[in-house]
Amino acid sequence: MKVAIIGGGAAGFFAAIHVKENYPQSEVTIFEKTTKILSKVKISGGGRCNVTNGTTSIKELALAYPRGGKKLKKAFTIFSTQHTIEWFEQRGVPLIIQEDNCVFPKSQKSQSIIDCFLEEVNRLGIYIKLQKGVKAIKQVDKVLELEFLDEETLLFDKVIVATGGTPKRKNLEWLEKQNHKIEEPVPSLFTFNMPKESITELMGIVVEETLASIQGTKLKSKGPLLITHWGMSGPAILKLSAFGARILSEKAYIFNVQVNWINIINNEIVLQELKEIVTTHPNKFLSSIKPFQLSTRLWLYLLEKIDLPANRKWKEIGKKGLNKLINILTNDLYSVNGKTTFKEEFVTCGGISLESIDFNTMQSKKVENLYFAGEILDIDGITGGYNFQAAWTTGFIAAKLN
Length: 402
Fold this sequence. Notes:
The chain is built from 13 helices and 22 strands.
């Protein structure tokens, strides 16, 4: 049996290895369009490669996917985060689970993951062909004919497409021609640009417990927020961008973000905390007592934003001052104009619609013996190892070639 894997990324390699293990007599070839393999693995997690997430709850795991979570629930019972951890560790790559549940190689180097894959490919005798992009696929009797960009055509018994996410719809046209439904690709996981906001002067500050929301929508996200020299980033913002990928695209990335800096929704609790300061430290300056453990720079910035002098005493701010403080702490507003994506690390919302796939096998409902794995599918997760886990799980199931 001849099997082609289209795409030399995470899902492609994982699928290729499992095809060869499942069918030792088969001839398996990975075809990669560029000159590089596993490039996203190399740079992910700042070069450390966040291979999966440490959560063992499938229900919790599925919630990390703005698209595809429901379908993945069942798939994760077949190949879970625990299976991923065992798989790498059995092959000599010890992993560590951080406090935030992100899982990295103990070496803190993505090269450990790449080396593991290359060793497996060599051990199993899997072929790798670089600069070999596919431009068309068609069914010829029971086999599949691939036409490559260099005009060569080859026949295969089975084909797994694992070309990754793409920001351009035209890159999916060769699959659309086979009647696969395409969900329009738009960016997911991006940071917010705020060219008109002076908060960017506080770049580098991380606020651990925030609640961010998009004005005029139901989109909300909790977690750490990072102020950058171009705007805002960090888990709270990235999660918001992932769940709001389509909505924010429709808004052409021009919208307002509301920030609750203290992640307390009940204003009465906030008022009590501020009144406590007034009672306990009436003669202290606003600048010297920072509520809710805010950083000095952020606190002074917020005071200036609502025209409360830093050298005013707490006993002098009155009811009006307290209301201003409550509002800025729980409902601060910033205008966003544009986004920044992570170049090679981009994650795409969209791709091959899950309606076109039998998710039990990852086989196309339109073309027999054609399978899909990884981000080419309309599946994407938030940051934390979830996108790689979806690649491992779908690659593992596709490789059964059922």
